[in-house]
Amino acid sequence: MDAVHSRFATEPDLMNSSHRNATEPRLRPNLRVAVVAGGTWALLRLFFPLDWGYGPARAGLVAGLAALAWWATKRPPREIGVGKPCRLGVFLLVLACAGVAIHLAVVGRSIQRSAATESIELDQGQISYRAARYLVDQGVNPYGRAIPLDTTELRIELKDLLEPGVADEAVDQVEAALESGTAPSTAWEMIPTPREDPAAEAAWRSLSSRLGYKYGPLQIILYTPAVALFGHAGIYVVHLMLYLGIVLTMLAILRRWWPKPGAPWAVALIVVHFPPHLAHNTLDLSATDLMPLLAGLLAVLCFLGRRERLTALFIGLSIAAKLFPGALYLPLLLALRPRHWWPALAALAATFGPFLAWDPQGIFANLVAFNFIRSTDSTALVHFLAPWAASVVKAFGIALIGFTLWRTVRAAWTPRATLTYLLVAHAAAFLAAGTFHNNYLIWATPLLGLFLALALFRPVTADPSGEACRRPSGTSGAALPMRGARLDSDTASGTPEFQAEGWAS
Question: How many domains does the chain have?
């Protein structure tokens, strides 16, 4: 421990000129930050050209991001001074603010476009609009049987049951009928019945039960009032509010370790905003990934603050919005006392309960069965593998998640260990999934930004509530400084929270 104290005591404060020796190199710490931030941007940007047909290459990009994040942890985090940010911090903050401004401009343009044209880009937003509108106007269960809200899946499946030209024409008629307000059951009757064949008839019955809404009921609950007020543009109004909530939640998490804006804040925000996966997929198009992401980040924020009931509540809400990524946050419940799990169960019961009572088979077919029988596509690695090799990849992903979870439990769920588990779980899901579209990256980029900020910059405050929901055995409350107490290098290296996370390693 003395050696650790000695090293931190002699390490210069690279963000404060009063602690800098003129003979010491100034480029190296800045270069490390630039390499990590620039490398992360480049790898994330490559997902745009390497999209359909590049499943193995996309898996390689995920591995590259994991390797870069691992490399970022190989050197001690950089010291942050208590004075004004250095030029690097100011430059990065300007970039981060520019990214936020661009995203706000994109969603503002989308709201204006949607209101003028009465249209929504991308099928996910279109399905959400139909589900909300038909639920309010006609009392139609969005998870019901013979409710063809998901016309994209309908078009794919009908090509195997009908002649290609007939299938496309039928789906076009259904889409036009739905846009004109025709009842979904009437639109379903416009589809020609498949040829008389027992296998085709069985496939037809199965298809009719899984063309409803593919996302959690919390999405419908939040979209419905916005659609009633703003029409088609209501989808983008909700996305604007969710986007602002994500940014504010990230800042609230960052503020636990760096009370003032600086390079750590900027690095985390830059990872989210450059390249603009979030802007393109959710604010320009209409991918429905912001709601589960916001609930997951709020769960992390409450988890760091040891607010156990709120942590469980937001985990339940994340699952109620979308099964994935919400299910990846479930293991955080292991760090909570079981008597505090009830808010998660209450959130699930309140959101799923009415629809389960309405049509339990429809809920199962659209939210569970669909994910198991869904065909792979060329964005995923397993699409290019033999069945046995795909099974090996999936088994490896499950084993990797289990091993990382075991390591996280042994580390007493410290902040860095928790973020490591979440990132590994997301990466394993990307590698093992049958589809890996670009909007899935939105689930992980905020977590990656927070992780890189912690890896590159050393916190200047010791927040005992950020240690874990359950204090490690043998650690007394007096061993940690009071919330918000400033750390010098000796104090930080001697704090159990930072020892457990490896800050002094």
Answer: 2
Separation between Cα atoms, residue 276 and residue 243, nearest integer Å: 13
Question: Do 300 and 326 sit in the same domain of this protein?
Answer: yes
The H or E element containing residue 462 is strand 461-462
The burial of 193, by beta-carbon neighbours within 10 Å (0-12 exposed, 13-18 middle, 19 or more buried), is given as: exposed
In a domain, 451, yes or no: yes
Q: Are the beta carbons of 301 and 249 closer than 8 angstroms?
A: yes
Residue 152: domain span: 145-208
Query: Which pTM value belongs to this model?
Result: 0.86
Tell whether 159 and 266 lie within a shared domain. no
Domain presence at residue 129: no
| pLDDT tens sequence across 216-259 | 999 999 999 999 999 999 999 999 999 999 999 999 999 999 99
The answer to whether the beta carbons of residues 417 and 501 sit under 8 Å apart is yes
Please write the tens of the pLDDT for every residue from 414-451. 999 999 999 999 999 999 999 999 999 999 999 999 99
Assess contact for 296 and 446: CB atoms under 8 A. no
Of the candidate ranges 46-55, 124-133, 461-470, the one whose mean pLDDT is the lowest: 461-470
Q: 422: Cβ–Cβ under 8 A, 6 or more apart, which residues?
A: 300, 328, 329, 447
Does one domain contain both 256 and 353?
A: yes
CB 194 within 8 Å of CB 201: yes
Asked, for residue 188, whether it belongs to a domain, the answer is: yes
DSSP 77-106: PBP--SSS--HHHHHHHHHHHHHHHHHHHH
Cα dihedral sign for 169, 282, 436, 395? negative
